[in-house]
Amino acid sequence: MTNNAPNGAFVIDVRDPGRRVGHMKELALDLAAPHDIGTAVIGVVAGSDIHLDLTLQAVGEGVLVTGTAVVPIVGECSRCLAEIRYDEDIDLAALFSYQPTDARGRVIEPDEDADEENLWVVDDRVDLETTLTDAVVLDLPLAPLCRPDCPGLCPQCGAPLAEDPGHSHPAHDPRWEALARLSQPPGEGGPEAKED
Ligand SMILES: [Zn+2]
Ligand SMILES: [Zn+2]
């Protein structure tokens, strides 16, 4: 399996703790995100520093990796479009199995229809990238908010209301009345009205 040895940004050596059940190793490391992680509106930007505090533990069938990742999140408020930045602590837990071997100790390649979700210890290394990527994506809000009660944008002029709590327009500003008339549906036989 040497030519398939994992070599990504999140590959971790697990020779220590070794295979003696119960042995553990604590590990702290900083890695750069290999690519963007997340959705179009929020996530981790490629190259960001990710801090990992991990415990590697030898269990009977493989290596259990648990710990936390501190990831810098950048996104956009879904109501007011303001930039959002925060560090998120994300729990990680994944079991990497030793590859099955035959009587001579050679690795038995899995069947093509084998469960591809399995994570493997390959050449005493594990690749945390899928584990981390999945955990980050699960953690991200579907509709990010700059603050829980973000009031969004003024429906009349588009100004961010969070920056201007007293924001209002005169009740009878003729400019807005003209706009309102334009956005009303056309009368019978009239031309197609366009919202903008
Ligand atoms: Zn907002
Ligand atoms: Zn306004």
Give a quick summary of the entry:
By secondary structure, the protein is mostly beta strands.
How are the elements arranged and paired?
Blueprint lengths: L10 E3 L10 E9 L4 E2 L3 E3 L4 E11 L2 E15 L6 E16 L21 E2 L3 E3 L1 H11 L34 H9 L14
The chain binds zinc ion (2 copies).
| Major sheet description | 7 strands, mixed
Number of helices: 2
- How many strands appear in the DSSP assignment? 9
The value of Rg in angstroms is 26 Å
pLDDT < 50 stretches: none
Write down the overall mean pLDDT.
86
Strand percentage: 25-35%
Instruction: Kindly name the structural category.
Output: mainly beta
User: How do the SSEs run, as a string of H and E?
Assistant: EEEEEEEEEHH
Whole-Å distance between the termini? 61 Å
Helix percentage range: 10-25%
Q: Could you characterize what this model shows?
A:
It is a single chain. The radius of gyration is 26 Å and the shape is elongated. Helices cover 10% and strands 33% of the residues. The model has no long low-confidence stretch (mean pLDDT 86). It has 196 residues and is mainly beta. The strands form two sheets. Strands 2, 3, 4, 5, 6, 7 and 8 form a seven-stranded mixed sheet that branches. It has helices at residues 129-139, 174-182, and strands at residues 11-13, 24-32, 37-38, 42-44, 49-59, 62-76, 83-98, 120-121, 125-127. Strand 3 (37-38) and strand 4 (42-44) form a beta hairpin. It has one domain. Residues 77, 79-80, 82, 145-146, 150, 162 line the site of one zinc ion.
